[in-house]
Write a structure and sequence with these properties.
Mean pLDDT of chain A: 92
Oligomer: heterodimer
Radius of gyration of chain A: 17 Å
Strand order of the largest sheet of chain A: 1-2-3-8-7-6-5-4
Low-confidence stretches of chain A: none
Number of helices of chain A: 4
Distance between the termini of chain A: 14 Å
Shape of chain A: globular
Low-confidence stretches of chain B: none
Helix content of chain B: 40-55%
Strand content of chain A: 35-45%
Strand order of the largest sheet of chain B: 1-2-4-6-7
Shape of chain B: globular
Radius of gyration of chain B: 13 Å
Order of helices and strands of chain A: EHHEEHEEEHEE
Strand content of chain B: 25-35%
Order of helices and strands of chain B: EEEHEEHEHEH
Amino acid sequence: MAARQFEFSNRIDSVTTVLKQILEFINDTSPTEIEVNTLLFKAKIITIELLTNSLKHSGSKSTLINISLDDKKLTITKLDNGNPLKLIADINSTADKVPVTNDILHTLYARAKTKDQIHFTYEENKIGDLLVINDIVEHFGLLIITKAADEFIYAYNHQAKENAFIVTINF
Amino acid sequence: MIKIIKDEPNHILIEITVTEANLDNSDLFKSQVTQLLDRHKKNLIIDLNSVDYIDSSFLGALVAILKHAMGMKLEVILVGLKKDVNDLLMLIRLDKVFKIYTNYNEALTHL
């Protein structure tokens, strides 16, 4: 078991530095028997999107990224005190999964795991003969994380006013 | 942000000059390339050989540019993708909507 916390100052010019530190830590502490290049690729694109999400939406001064590895999985957790995802209100009011985005390539769904906790999943849509480019969404952040991860959960803690994005990659 | 490498009768080859294609430069990229399409009205080949990483904001800009070009009945072709950039496009299936080739000469055979 290895774990470390990284602080991101929510500045665009810090993305590369924090990303490099995180990938070095994962590379140094991941089990020797796993295929590290695939793991590093997934960790890289997930971390970039988590940091970008903070830059765009969090509204807080800094973001914490917790990295933990055991012999079965890598967990990347992003914590910040910005505004909660608007999806929380929609999801709490239904037991069904709710489409977040939908185009000819994918449907991204959010489903309540428990109260104030969202589980993201996706389906690849069948592409017909007519490829309607204009339908394709231009927001890929949540989709990238959902597809690269084995599990992607968002949780909001009302008492602490804290957002948690919890991403798991199984080895 | 972008550099015009070739301006031919039926296409323009441009190169992205940044190594990190991200939120910081995606809006500028989108507006520069859209203006280029409007001005030249030619198919566009974008060389990404300098780009080490690309984020969702920049991917969104690329898709917006593709929509703009297709509205003008023009093509957008991507070349020179590094492995991680190519793997990311494949992960989110953008290889189904963009024409992607290894290099400029290969792209020319398909224009």
